[in-house]
Each structure stands twice: as structure tokens, then as C-alpha cells.
């Protein structure tokens, strides 16, 4: 559901296998997770997760067009004592499955939405890669925030953390943005800038619409790629 761009996945995986030992762990990042401070529902207006909801996106890049279908399931998974909502994210090209991911999210009592990990499989040229899979509390992995309770311009936060594997970060760039996709026009959007040191030179902008969540993603550095909401 963080909906990271997909065209550079296998190149990034090869880089990690060759050089993940070169990355130093950020020992200053140590979020305290108290299960008592988490709630059962995820209703942050910019990242709502209502079981049964399905969102369909078109991903366009120099590799062509692909479909990304994201479904909020009724299933849950307990991680670090926190009951997380399970989201199923499937990327395909025609009848060909390219990526199959299960993401785990939970919201704290303040309203911030946390990302607790993912179980992902990526398929290309007959190969299956699970690079990028991680679970908070396993092998030093730590959860991160995907959407603050009250987004503030300039705010920077880690979305996930497992050194050399999951290091996405984001910054709030603007509030009150308006964007259009095939699904319609969306106002009062939160605009973020997302990056990871695992893919130097790659930067993307995301737009989150109230009551919907992610509606548009645009790669602004490191390539040409666009993913936009087309419907439910």
C-alpha cells in the first residue's frame, strides 16, 4: 500500500545483495511501540483502510502500462502486540503477475498510521524475489509512519526500517493540493516527497486525498513513471 514504484525493483535487489553490508544502521531510530496506544480501525482521513475497499491504479513507465490493484482485507496480523490491518497489493501486466504483496498497517490513538512490514514476491523472467520483505520485530526491523495524524509541511519521517532492505523515508511538501486522475478531481491533498538511500537518485511525489488515500504518484528523479487512481 505504500505503493512504491516497481520498474527498478530487480536492479535494486541486485544492488542490495552486492552491497547491503556497506550501509550503516541508524541506531538513533528506535520507535517505542506500546500496543495499548493502538486502535482497531485505520481512519486517518489521508490513509483510510476500510475492509472490503478496492482501489485500481494504472502504472505507466517506459516499460509500458501495468495495473495495480490494492484491496483492504478483513484479515489482521498481530505484530509486536499490535493488531494490524492486512492489505493485498497486486501488480500485473495483462494476465501476467508481476508482484504480489501483503502489507500490514495499524493506527495509533493520535491518528498516525504505522507500517509494520510486508510479505512480498516479485516475478520476472521466471525468477521470484522476496527482497524487500520485512516484519517489525524480526531481525532488527522497525515500523515507521506512512501518514502522520496531523501532517505538517517540512515534516520528515521514516516509513519503515530494516537496514539494507527497507529504508523508505518521506517529507510533507504541501497541503491543500489539487490533482486530477482518471478517477476524478481531488482537492485538499497532502503532497509528499519519497525516497530511499537504497536507490540513490530516485525521488517520487505522492498525493493523498482525504477519504481516499493515495491517488497519484509521479517519479520526479531517476526515471519516468506515473501511477494514478482509475477507480474502485
Give a structural overview.
The radius of gyration is 17 Å and the shape is globular. The two termini are 15 Å apart. The model is unreliable at 7-21 (pLDDT under 50). The chain is mostly beta strands and 232 residues long. The protein has one domain (9-15, 38-231): YmcC-like fold (Beta Barrel), CATH 2.40.360. It is built from 1 helix and 16 strands. A hairpin with a 3-residue loop joins strand 14 (203-209) and strand 15. It has a 16-stranded antiparallel β-sheet that branches. The longest helix has 11 residues, at 9-19.
Amount of helix: under 10%
Which class best fits the helix and strand makeup? mainly beta
Query: Any idea what the shape is?
Result: globular
How can the largest sheet be summarized? 16 strands, antiparallel
Radius of gyration: 17 Å
Share of residues in strands = over 45%
Low-confidence stretches: 7-21
Number of helices: 1
The total tally of domains equals 1
Order of helices and strands: HEEEEEEEEEEEEEEEE
CATH architecture: Beta Barrel
Termini separation comes to 15 Å
CATH class category: Mainly Beta
Q: What is the count of β-strands? A: 16
CATH topology: YmcC-like fold
Mean residue pLDDT: 92
Amino acid at each position: 500500500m505504500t505503493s512504491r514504484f516497481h520498474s527498478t525493483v530487480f536492479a535494486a535487489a541486485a544492488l542490495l545483495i552486492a552491497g547491503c553490508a556497506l550501509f550503516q544502521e541508524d541506531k538513533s531510530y528506535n520507535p517505542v511501540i506500546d500496543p495499548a496506544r493502538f486502535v482497531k480501525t485505520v481512519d486517518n482521513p489521508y490513509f483510510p483502510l476500510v475492509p472490503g475497499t478496492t482501489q485500481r491504479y494504472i502504472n505507466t513507465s517506459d516499460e509500458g502500462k501495468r495495473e495495480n490493484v490494492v484491496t483492504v482485507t478483513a484479515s489482521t496480523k498481530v505484530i509486536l502486540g499490535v493488531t494490524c490491518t492486512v492489505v493485498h497489493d497486486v501488480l500485473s501486466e495483462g494476465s501476467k503477475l508481476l508482484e504480489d504483496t501483503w502489507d500490514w498497517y495499524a493506527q495509533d490513538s493520535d491518528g498516525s498510521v504505522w507500517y509494520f512490514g510486508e510479505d512480498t514476491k516479485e516475478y520476472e523472467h521466471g525468477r521470484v524475489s522476496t527482497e524487500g520483505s520485512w516484519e517489525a520485530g524480526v531481525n532488527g526491523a522497525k515500523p515507521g509512519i506512512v501518514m502522520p495524524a496531523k501532517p505538517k509541511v517540512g515534516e520528515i519521517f521514516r516509513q519503515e526500517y530494516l537496514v539494507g532492505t527497507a529504508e523508505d523515508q518521506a517529507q510533507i511538501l504541501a497541503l491543500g493540493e489539487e490533482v486530477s486522475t482518471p478517477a476524478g478531481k481531488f482537492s485538499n491533498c497532502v503532497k509528499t516527497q519519497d525516497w530511499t538511500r537504497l536507490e540513490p537518485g530516485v525521488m517520487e511525489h505522492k498525493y493523498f486525498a482525504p477519504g481516499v488515500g493515495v491517488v497519484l504518484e509521479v517519479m520526479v528523479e531517476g526515471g519516468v513513471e506515473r501511477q494514478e487512481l482509475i477507480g474502485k
